[in-house]
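Justification of computing resources. Each target in the renewal requires a structure prediction run like the one illustrated here; the chain below, 175 residues long, is used simply to show the kind of job we budget for.
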Amino acid sequence: MVESPPGIEGQGFFATSLDSLVGLARANSLWPLPFATSCCGIEFMSTMASHYDIGRFGAERLSFSARQADVLMVMGTIAKKMAPVVKQVYLQMAEPRWVLSVGACACSGGIFDTYSVLQGIDRIIPVDVYVPGCPPRPEQILDGFMQIQELAKKESTRRRNMPEYKALLASYGIE
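Resulting structure tokens:
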């Protein structure tokens, strides 16, 4: 059961702020876009299966279209040749958008400290939550997803228009 946002309750009515209501709706209806390239993708598949069932958290529908997704879940090794593709997918997503970096390879390049592997996706796009592990367990992926839900719940509807957020995007070359 979802907890109601703080507000004023009475006989037959409930009043709260618009930010709280929008945050509650966003947090419980996030559509993830999985960008899985290696073994972390297999762990994500088990997270989607009936034993762990990420659908309990409002993420029943995976979106393979960037324009319909809220959460970009980057899982596995990202080669430097794939970096522009990941950034393009991120740019095609509508605001508000969140990024979940899953696994040691997506977070830091993992054991592949080579010329061809990107040493963390945070070099090309801003990351909201990191899920460590090689590969991470499905419980860790669920925990990371729940952290994204908390971010969505508490985020102001105006945050994306603030100068700090625009400066963060500008530091990645994103306008």
